[in-house]
Design goal:
The protein is an alpha+beta fold and 705 residues long. The chain has 22 helices and 14 strands. It folds into 3 domains: 202 residues, no CATH class; 306 residues, no CATH class; 124 residues, no CATH class. A 6-stranded antiparallel sheet has the order 5-7-8-6-1-12, with helices on one face. A 4-stranded antiparallel sheet has the order 2-11-13-14. It has a two-stranded antiparallel ribbon with strand order 3-4. Helix 3 packs antiparallel against helix 4. The longest helix is centred in the first third of the chain and has 27 residues.
């Protein structure tokens, strides 16, 4: 087939194709960004696309493949020749050239091959859409199960996928429009496309928002504009910290640098790291603010005092609970009008006030018999994956120490004094970030320290787990109210002591890694004082938030209440409502002629309904009635397509015209026409595929008559 010069529409299609291929090559680049430089990636991609435009008009496939292959070999040979002439000083440049050149052969070849066939055979574009979908699937197959590591947040992946889908569907619409589809159909199809993309986008984010910590980390509850803990429960090679104000915290009697716990990571597997799980016989974590006051059982641990706290959430998920260890009472509080806070609540916790010598005397031999930690739970909290390197290091650090408290403090001191705090821990060569931290770089942020200490303790048979939340700065408080910023997110270790429960230990080093300069963000004093003033003014009016009681004697809620509830439901589940309306619209389109025929005794109305049903069924089979085509012309064309001797579309058309323009038309003749329509529909239904039905669901608006 000879190459065809594309028109303006064709130019747009090919530009969109190049954009889609660019998105795919960008996904491929994410896997190689540590090796490949962006200029090489962009050059390789554009070379593949442009090469197809130059080669396609002149050569058929096999000669074109040969020429393209020779060009690739020539480029590498030219690079080798140039760097050889430059001498030994250019050895590094040749290495860098080869390091970039070889990985980028794949996107270069794919972009050239797809562009060649799209230009050579325009019908290939539809197949290209399918192939692109498979490539997208394979590129991001590893990003499931909350193991998103190519991008910092799922919104980027969702946005890229939505853009990819939008471009592909526009390409299909443009190619379909050249085949005679009407503008009304295309507009409806674009509207449906927007709904599908929006629904998919919400579903994608919802999938992550409901996720627990699994596969070595993951998102707890990501939002577009609120703080989340995702990067603090994964061992990243580099993180950035925001200084946004997250919440305000008030404590009745201030503690020394209290730790506000969001959740604990109790489970551990070498292949997936720490994750949220309950030990055998252990009650589930309380991770959400209840709708009404709840009281939790007090385990009766020794040397614990009550701590009364109040929390005022600013930039945080309003359902997420933050509290000091160990909460025994949680009370949601009312909010005042025009409040700057999205949620308020009160917590009473039993916080530890132990003395060091008391924990020294708490030996670990009786842990499996402790009423709060049975043998199975003990095994659960001492699981460390049998990692020999971790065990050997723990033994080395605690050499000569028999008391478990002394062993814990030795590990704590070792990490604090021999390691450095860093937001750029670096990338491990073998993919094991924790081993890279412990045995090579010796620098990392709080999660690295907490994970390391917990595993070292577990390897020695000391039950421990990782806690994630916030630290607070006592020096920033005003009237016992303290600001909590996003950069105060923290991870630490909780170790179990018989009779004393879970005790906090913070192994994070205070020493910055050499060559790094890091300072915590400064507080916006005016904003903070304004919020403190607002709390002090309205605090006396804070009351317990009580859900409405169900009273059978109450009157039925009025219209205002019903409208408010309905509006809230629509805002929350708008995408389901749109889907419901669309399905309802399809049902109305399908049933309206039948209902109208059933309700009317006028034979003219009934025959009109029968014709609409017949034309619609033919349209579903791909035989539309053209706008300038008479009924008899369409009927003869339909008979040629059906090839059925037992009935005729022309006979049905004759009966319809007799009813419309004749002198008399009997009920018996209407019955004959109706039976003809049913037989024709039955014959057409045999050739309707699931794909045809799906196409009808997506594009129900067709030319009927």
């Amino acid at each position: 087939m000879s190459f065809k010069v594309v028109n303006r529409k064709g130019v747009v299609i090919h530009l969109l194709r190049i954009a889609v291929l660019g998105l795919l090559c960008g996904g491929y680049y994410l896997y190689l960004k540590e090796l490949v430089s962006p200029p090489f990636w962009i050059t390789a991609f554009l070379a593949g696309c442009c090469g197809a435009f130059f080669i396609t008009p002149r050569f058929r496939f096999l000669p074109a493949v040969g020429l393209f292959g020779l060009i690739l070999v020539a480029i590498r040979f030219s690079g080798f020749l140039i760097f050889s002439i430059m001498g030994e000083s250019a050895d590094l440049y040749y290495f860098l050239f080869d390091l970039n050149y070889l990985p980028l052969l794949l996107p270069l070849i794919i972009s050239w091959l797809f562009s060649y066939w799209a230009l050579r055979r325009p019908g290939f574009i539809k197949w290209e859409v399918i192939l692109n979908g498979w490539l997208l699937f394979f590129l991001f197959f590893s990003q499931g199960k909350f193991e998103l590591n190519l991008l910092p947040h799922p919104i980027y992946l969702a946005g890229g996928a939505a853009l990819f889908l939008l471009f592909e569907i526009i390409i299909l619409i443009l190619t379909a429009s050249s085949c005679g589809s009407d503008r009304k159909t295309i507009l409806v199809f674009i509207f449906l496309l927007i709904m599908i993309i929006s629904g998919g986008f919400i579903f994608f984010l919802g999938r992550y928002s409901k996720g627990a910590v699994s596969q070595g980390g993951g998102l707890v509850k990501p939002t577009l504009f609120r703080f989340d803990f995702s990067k603090y429960i994964k061992l990243e090679s580099e993180i950035t910290m925001s200084t946004d104000l997250v919440l305000l915290f008030r404590e009745e009697e201030p503690s020394q640098q209290p730790l506000l716990r969001r959740f604990v990571l109790s489970g551990y597997k070498p292949e997936s790291g720490f994750f949220m799980a309950e030990a055998p016989g252990e009650p589930p974590q309380i991770k959400t603010i209840p709708e009404e006051k709840i009281t939790l059982p007090d385990p009766g641990w020794r040397d614990r005092n009550d701590s009364l706290q109040e929390y005022f959430l600013v930039n945080f998920d309003p359902t997420s609970l933050v509290a000091m260890n160990y909460p025994v009472e949680i009370i949601p509080l009312t909010n005042w009008d025009s409040s700057s806070f999205i949620r308020n609540y009160k917590v009473t916790s039993r916080i530890s006030q132990f003395l060091t010598w008391e924990l020294v005397d708490s030996d670990g031999a009786d842990i499996p018999q402790d009423e709060h930690l049975n043998a199975k739970a003990f095994e659960f909290y001492t699981e460390y994956g049998e990692e020999q390197a971790i065990f050997d290091l723990a033994v080395q650090v605690t050499a000569g120490l028999e008391n478990r408290f002394d062993q814990i403090m030795a590990i704590l001191t070792y990490l604090q004094e021999d390691y450095f705090y860093s937001l750029k821990p670096g990338v491990s060569d073998d993919g094991n970030q924790l081993h890279h931290f412990l045995f090579e770089s010796k620098k990392g942020y709080c999660s690295y320290f907490a994970f390391s200490m917990s595993l070292m303790c577990r390897s020695l048979g000391i039950p421990s787990r990782v806690a994630v939340g916030f630290f607070t700065d006592p020096e920033l408080g005003v009237m016992n109210i303290y600001p909590v910023r996003a950069d105060m997110a923290h991870a630490w270790v909780e170790v179990f002591f018989p009779g004393y429960g879970w005790i906090n230990f913070d192994p994070t080093s205070q020493e910055l890694a050499p060559g790094e300069d890091f300072q915590f963000g400064s507080l916006e004093v005016d904003e903070f004082l304004s919020l403190v003033e607002e709390i002090l003014i309205n605090r006396d009016g804070l009351g317990e938030e009580v859900p409405p009681e169900i009273d059978d004697m109450k009157p039925v809620p009025g219209w205002t209440f019903l409208l408010k509830e309905s509006a809230g439901f629509i805002i929350k589940f708008w995408y389901l409502l749109i889907l419901f309306i669309w399905l309802l619209l399809l049902l109305v389109i399908e049933l309206s002629p039948r209902i109208r025929s059933f309700m009317s005794r006028n034979l003219n109305v009934r025959m009109d309904c029968e014709l609409k049903l017949l034309v619609r069924r033919f349209a579903l089979s791909g035989l539309n009635k053209k706008g300038d085509e008479s009924l008899l012309e369409w009927a003869e064309r339909a008979d040629q397509a059906v090839h059925e001797a037992s009935f005729s579309v022309r006979e049905f058309a004759d009966l319809y015209l007799k009813n419309r323009y004749g002198q008399e038309f009997s009920l018996e003749e209407y019955s004959i026409a109706r039976e003809h329509r049913k037989m024709i529909n039955g014959r057409l239904n045999q050739g309707i595929t699931p794909g045809t039905c799906m196409n009808y669901l997506i594009r129900p608006f067709r030319r009927k008559r």
